[in-house]
Design goal:
By secondary structure, this protein is an all-alpha fold. The protein is built from eight helices and two strands; from the N terminus they run H-E-E-H-H-H-H-H-H-H. It has one domain.
Length: 287
Amino acid sequence: MAGSEVKGIGGYIEHHLVNLKVELVPGNPFWDVHLDSVFYTLLTAVVFLWIFRKAAKQATSGVPGRFLNFIELVVGFVDEQVKDSFKGKSKMVPAMALSIFVWVFLMNFMDLIPVDLLPFLGQKAGVEYMRVVPSTDLNITFGLAIGVMLFVFYYSFAVKSPKGYLKELLTHPFEAGNPMVQAILAPFNVLLNIVETLAKPISLALRLFGNLYSGELIFMLIAVFTLDFAVTELFTTIGGPILGISQFFLTFLWAVFHILIITLQAYIFMMLSLVYLNMAHEVHDAH
């Protein structure tokens, strides 16, 4: 995106932080649909399904190639984490953990695409605003977190039964053998369980959003070094190439470090989801 299209560094960054949106309820941004986030979320989901469908079709009893070796490495890694963190019995949870890890990683990986490339192509196609990293959108991260919590509630009711789950809300963590003491502690238990339940999706969503949002901002700050802003006029003609070389090395170094961040955030999101699902399968002796 050329520097002439926006006013100054602040305008450049602000432009990159605006989503392409549709207002379902005029004047109420809560109901806005971020079309770019939805598009790239679905795109990464399609890429995820295509990769593993391709791996499934190529799977043979012979010696696997590099692609299958890599897929087996990812599947084996996730399987080990599931065995270590999830003590319940469910065929759906390992597949869900794999989907979360790879899908969130692919969404995070969009942050490594040059910050101006896709928005520039979008402008050529008539799209004024475009954000390409779904995990920098709170709507997407909260959507993922709420999806995990729906599974948590499902297993809580399926494993413990509605009656057992309600009893756990009333009697855990402060348990007592005396019915009168239990009745006194019940309001405190309910309050603590409500806070704990609300904290789970909030922590999942905000942790992923915060780390990727900050990473996106750093790429933008690096990018402004070589844009045609008034601040660059302070440099001599030799300063331009110097800034260009500086941007290349800074972008490269941050991208290498950012690979660790996007992988770690996908791993953390998966592991916390497994922890919450494991808690949903735990049945306390008192219940």
